[in-house]
């Protein structure tokens, strides 16, 4: 079985977009308990997978886990060094730990997505893909604009396994333009 219900969401997103086709290097931001990593390894046993989370993660064959905040200054360098080359897919299922104040929670989660995107622009190979959980409503217009600058195609989707009433959506950005001058922001 899978370590998380989230695993089914990645499976559905892969079926729809072929995100895991041919991947050799994958980055999983906010990886605990490891369901997404399981789905990647199941489809691509030889893929090099690097996962990072604030929480400890049970070891998994062929996956490098780091218990670390992705916003730490040295996190990106650590991921890159462990990957051994540019990533085919950077994915983030991160949500900020909620403090119970709706706007604050929303802003904090959007902040994490921005960090993930910023990292992705330096970790991905040209043509690579980015998948991230986003929250519906408010504040994501700028994110979408940034994604459109960096990727050929940007789609917002709600996989069937995602609870209907939840504000959780996923953004699937494919075809990293790469190499162009300037960063994501
Ligand atoms: N995709 C995972 C799976 O299938 O097992 C589930 C991920 S869970 C929904 C989101 C994770 O993001 C949590 O484990 C949380 O600890 C992590 N997270 C939140 N903020 C983080 C940060 N700043 N750095 C690293 N991980 C973070």
From TrEMBL:
The active site is at residue 133. S-adenosyl-L-methionine binds at residues 34, 36, 53, 69, 93. Residues 2-176 form the Ribosomal RNA methyltransferase FtsJ domain. It is found in: Cytoplasm. It catalyses: uridine(2552) in 23S rRNA + S-adenosyl-L-methionine = 2'-O-methyluridine(2552) in 23S rRNA + S-adenosyl-L-homocysteine + H(+). One of its GO terms (molecular function) is rRNA (uridine-2'-O-)-methyltransferase activity. It is an enzyme of class 2 (transferase). GO terms for cellular component: cytoplasm. Belongs to the class I-like SAM-binding methyltransferase superfamily. RNA methyltransferase RlmE family. It comes from the Bacteria. The keyword Chloroplast does not apply. Its main location: cytoplasm. This is Ribosomal RNA large subunit methyltransferase E. Keywords: Cytoplasm, Methyltransferase, rRNA processing, S-adenosyl-L-methionine, Transferase. It comes from Sandarakinorhabdus cyanobacteriorum. The keyword RNA-binding does not apply. Specifically methylates the uridine in position 2552 of 23S rRNA at the 2'-O position of the ribose in the fully assembled 50S ribosomal subunit. Its EC number is 2.1.1.166.
